[in-house]
Amino acid sequence: MKINNKIKIIVILILIIIFSIIAARYFIGLHFKKKFSVRPAPGVIVKQVEETIFFRSIETFGTAVAKNSKTYRVKQNEIVGNLNIDGRLVKAGDIIVALKDNQSIIADFSGKLGKREIAQGVLGSDSLIITLDDIKNIVIDIKIPENYVGVIKKDLKAEISSSAFSRTFSGKIQSVSSRIDPSTRSILARIIVKNDNHKIIPGQLMTVKIIYNEEKQLGVPESAVTIQGKTAFVYVINNNLAEKRNIEVGKRNYGKVSVLSGISEGEEVVVEGVSKVRNNLKVKILKSKN
């Protein structure tokens, strides 16, 4: 009897120990699960939805030409005094070069001077060609595909650029041809470009972007928009809570996307940290972009 009681006690003790181990492992696991399952809210940068000007554009190329240009042939042995030509700016009526026998070459219009030398023997003497270019305004003739005939018109804005410059020049369409060239299926348009600082020089190849169909629409940065198949969405933040909102997108200009429906002006959308956000997830706003 005593042996049986001892066995029972030992079995009970073993069961208690096993139960205690199982219970301890359960509660320890539950503790660590609670501790590590609570992750900090991801940090994001947001921006308010606002109206932006969006447009469509046609991009092409053209060669810069001076609005007015004239050349003067001069015999070097007839020049009086020092020759001051290269890069010199003159006004209409200024003396370009003084010549013998009290004669002078007079500027017909305001512009910038240059020269092109002619080798001895060409044209029968030592001569040079003086050029006068009015480059305050530059002319660029461009060819536009005929399918844009319905949108191309006088006074449309143009943005002019070149790999030689870090800036963009402003221009507009001065005139549009009344006929389509049947050999190229294109129509000719003339662009006038403001060139007050004389950066653009005649003969330079320029990129021309014609702007049309300008309109104000709600816009967000491209980084805020996620595309999945045919669906586009953004995350709208309300009280630090992210809401996934499907949107309808329109035009894209300069890193922004127009939004036709789905969000309202003044709402804040996530523009950085989008990959860390999920619907109904609490977030921490690190910065609000202006």
Could you characterize what this model shows?
Helix content is 12%, strand content 53%. It has 290 residues and is mainly beta. 18% of the residues are buried. The protein has a six-stranded antiparallel β-barrel with strand order 2-7-10-9-8-11. Strands 4-5 form a two-stranded antiparallel ribbon. The chain has three domains: 43-54 and 216-289, conserved putative lor/sdh protein from methanococcus maripaludis s2 fold, CATH 2.40.420.20; 57-62 and 137-214, Efflux pump adaptor protein, beta barrel domain (Elongation Factor Tu (Ef-tu), domain 3, Beta Barrel); 69-136, Beta Barrel (OB fold (Dihydrolipoamide Acetyltransferase, E2P)), CATH 2.40.50. The protein has one helix at 2-37, and strands at residues 43-48, 50-75, 89-90, 95-99, 103-106, 111-118, 127-145, 157-161, 169-181, 186-194, 205-221, 226-228, 231-238, 241-253, 256-261, 268-272, 284-289. The longest helix has 36 residues, at 2-37.
